[in-house]
Amino acid sequence: xxxxxxxxxxxxxxxxxxxxxxxxxxxxxxxxxxxxxxxxxxxxxxxxxxxxxxxxxxxxxxxxxxxxxxxxxxx
Length: 75
Hints:
With 75 residues, this protein is an all-alpha fold. The protein has one domain (2-27, 45-74). It has two helices and no strands.
């Protein structure tokens, strides 16, 4: 039972971190900076923050997979 709770918690954190990574890459409409195509640009640190959040999502996703695998092997 504990592994099932661990699975749900890790999966929730993985999905949350993944969506935060995607949101980080969205352009800032309030920004005055536009690129050469006329689109609003993202922050210069956005790719690094997004990559870090994607790594966190992968970490929790892997642990959710392992918790589910252990739970399924016990049943």
